Amino acid sequence: MTKPPRSTPPRSKPLLRDSEAPIRSKPRRKRNPAQPQLLFDPMPDRVEPALAELKAHPPKGDQWSWELKWDGYRLAVHIEPQGVRILTRGGHDWTHRFPEIAEAGRALGPATMIIDGEAVVLDAEGRPDFGLLQQSLGASGKTAGNRASDAILYAFDLMYLDGHDLRGVEYRSRRHLLEDTLNGHDGAIRLSETLDVDPTVLLENVCRLGLEGIVGKHLDQPYRSGRTGDWVKVKCVQSEAFMIVGYEPSTASPGGFGSLVLAAYGGHDLVHVGNIGTGFRQAEMTRLRKMLDRLRWKRKQPPVPYPGKADIVWVEPTLIAEIEFRAWTGDGKLRHASYKGLRERQDNADVYKLD
């Protein structure tokens, strides 16, 4: 018996009619800052800061953005739904030490963000003064833990905004977002202004004003933690001659030292102005150590009053060192000092005289 012929099955209908255009994605709408709980990217607990490489001269090219180098403490301000956290460069929570900055951060809410900036205290002429910041914070001694109620955060980058991790975004876009975010705010969190001028001319004027230097940021680079070369700094350098009065031995380098003890003249007496442990090549360190050991101090009292607790090998005040440094601290010590070389009295090397 022959099978009946199969009937042709009806053709299936297309999923989309020819007249229908494919669905296209729409531009993302601006997020509602009143809904910070709708996160696309979780806020990092902490971001290792991007650091600037020290350069002797500003790099050339129009791909750099320039601003002042602020003389203070690097901070990251985390503004979250549950409150504000202020973290130091090393990751310590110093929210309680910067109450005005924390309050200004709360005023930027309810959006969520991480602002990168530098906390400073301004002097009477409106210049950042690291010594005043130290005094305000009580950075040493029994007053450690004080609050810097007069500190200002100069914001220069934005790492996270309202559910979006911005570290992969180029700097020029992060900068636009930061400017929009801080528009109209001039309290304890302020925008670090970019300066559209030739960086060489800018540096000359910055140094003439007694400021610390300038910072350049590559406009096309993302936010990368550490010293990557995306950010550079050019500093205003001071250089003076100081007397070497001792050294701190080093356990890592038996033939070298951990640091040199420096002194300047205060009237007719030598006054301790700080210790220095950077700027030495190994050969120079070894040579210096041999010279210093031949000049060991043979009296009971050291050549200068010394407040430190470290074991110091005191020497006769004979050798004079040329030292680069950025500034003086409030207690009369060299800040960011670096060794350049030995000077000779025959080279008109007058030991620095304190005012």
Structure explained in plain terms:
The protein has two domains: 50-232, D-amino Acid Aminotransferase, Chain A, domain 1 (2-Layer Sandwich), CATH 3.30.470.30; 238-347, Nucleic acid-binding proteins (OB fold (Dihydrolipoamide Acetyltransferase, E2P)), CATH 2.40.50.140. It is 14% helix and 30% strand. It contains five helices and 18 strands. The chain has helices at 99-107, 130-137, 171-182, 199-208, 282-293; strands spanning 50-54, 64-68, 73-80, 83-88, 113-120, 152-161, 164-165, 189-191, 213-218, 226-235, 238-248, 259-266, 269-276, 313-314, 320-325, 327-328, 334-335, 338-343. Strands 3, 4, 5, 6, 7 and 8 form a six-stranded mixed beta sheet that branches.
Helix content range: 10-25%
State the end-to-end CA separation: 124 Å
Strand content: 25-35%
Reported CATH architecture of the largest domain: 2-Layer Sandwich
| Name given to the CATH homologous superfamily of the largest domain | DNA ligase/mRNA capping enzyme
CATH class of the largest domain: Alpha Beta
Count of all domains: 2
Shape: elongated
Radius of gyration: 29 Å
**Separate helix tally:** 5
Pairing-aware structural class of the strands and helices? alpha+beta
